[in-house]
Amino acid sequence: MDKNNITYTHLFTKDLKDAFEKKEGSEKRVYAVMEFNTEFELGISCKPYEWVNSHSFVTLDGEEALALYVASENPMVEILNAHSLDELNKKMIKMANNFKNPEFVNNKVESRFY
Predict the structure, then answer these.
(1) What is the pLDDT of residues 100-114, one digit of tens each?
(2) C-alpha dist (Å) from residue 20 to 8, 17, 51, 52, 55
(3) Can you spell out the DSSP letters for 3-37?
(4) Which pTM was predicted?
(5) Is 19 exposed, middle or buried (0-12, 13-18, 19+ CB in 10 A)?
(6) How far is Cα 113 from Cα 17, in angstroms, rounded to an integer?
(7) Which residues pair with 53 in a beta bridge?
(8) For labelling alongside 36, which of 18, 48, 92, 103 has CA 20 to 30 A away?
(9) Residues 28-62: pLDDT tens digits?
(10) What is the distance between the alpha carbons of residues 106 and 27, in angstroms, rounded to a whole number?
(11) Is there a contact between 17 and 59 (Cβ–Cβ < 8 Å)?
């Protein structure tokens, strides 16, 4: 897969899409928990500063998303929410791209570890 052409729609299963369409009003939200690691940590390459989205989980249950976020042992974990699957996909792409920005990563590291 081309690193510059990321999409997360493969995580939106038919069951998730169907359940999302049945939701109504203000409770119509979808959540994602995204974990990031360096390529070096994952054994993909010897690049210690190249960050990749190593795991993502999508759910309609906000409490489940929050529980996964809190339980993650990965300090570089993000939780996102949106009112549509398309909006969530765009937010996930933006977050993955944020991890390509050294300034963003440095701010994350400083806020998580200090």
Answers:
(1) 999 999 998 888 765
(2) 16, 5, 30, 28, 22
(3) TTS---GGGS-HHHHHHHHH--GGG--EEEEEEEE
(4) 0.85
(5) middle
(6) 37
(7) 36
(8) 18
(9) 899 999 999 999 999 998 888 899 999 999 999 99
(10) 34
(11) no
